[in-house]
Amino acid sequence: MKIKSVLIFFSALMLLASPAAAGDVCTHVTLDWIANHVPLSPGAKIVLKRPSGEFCEVVIAVDGNLAPVYAGKSALVAGRLFRDRVPVTRETMNSLSEVAEAERKAADEKTAMAEERRRRFFKERHKDLSPLVSMSFGPGQATDFLYVITDPNCSHCKAMLPELEALAFEAKLKLKLIVFPLLSAKSRDMTAHILCKEFNYAAYREMNLPQTLVTCEAADEKIDKTMKLMRAADVSFVPMVVASDGAWVVEGNDMCGVKTHLGIADGAVDGDGNACGDK
């Protein structure tokens, strides 16, 4: 079998699209056209678009990364393009190294600004978190507390809780959990059941839910209030740990970040056994 001059390695997906009009292979290719066939994050943009044989070669900037795709008249392919043994995609991406660096830098700055906005938000409105607490854990002699924002359907949240429990006794803190059903409709159903049945911390950790979940008006009201506050804070991920007075916020499963803010990071390790100072 003869090897064709164009080989496409499918690293992601192939989606059928409506045929484009005759003419330039790139005429029909716009960001909206691409978005109709593959999900794109808000703020995505085209940084390169040019004909490449029978394809339109497009590079999209998405969340600080560059993604190459190849559009035909009736198909969109994400992957690596080779022509006559030449790695077309690699050469294109090498030529865009400065663009890639600028996009990464812009994304990092955007992330830092968003983190700072959330930090200021919780500093100003930390008292609004108290009515959203559903359960707590910690020693009786606790002298302070942390808010832990979690989703019952979040594996990273579940992985963080045992470490937070150990920290609670080490630092004499209570953990006050706010159940924030962010990830899916299932998360909301689970949260409603947990709130209606008034789970304590131990029941939440065990998470033995029946096949048929219940809901109630009180749960819906609390969930709606939680969602409203988190939207105002632009929280789109879990877990999150917030100091009792909102003085600091740690985003994601970052135990070293929590310990650093508490002043006990020296000699501490994260969940993978790495020393906090090495992060």
Structure description:
The chain is elongated. Mean pLDDT is 86; it is low at 1-22. It is an alpha+beta fold. Helices cover 36% and strands 25% of the residues.
Considering the protein shown, what is the CATH homologous superfamily of the largest domain?
Glutaredoxin
Task: Count every beta strand, where a strand is a DSSP E run of 2 or more residues.
Answer: 11
Q: Tell me the CATH topology of the largest domain.
A: Glutaredoxin
Percent helix range: 25-40%
Kindly report the average pLDDT value.
86
Quickly name the level 1 CATH class of the largest domain: Alpha Beta
Distance between the termini: 52 Å
Low-confidence stretches: 1-22
Written as H for each helix and E for each strand, in order along the chain, the element string is EHEEEEEHHEEHEHHHEEH
Number of domains: 2
Number of helices: 8
Query: Which structural class fits the helix and strand makeup?
Result: alpha+beta
Instruction: Report the portion of residues in β strands.
Output: 15-25%
Based on CA atoms alone, the radius of gyration comes out at 24 Å
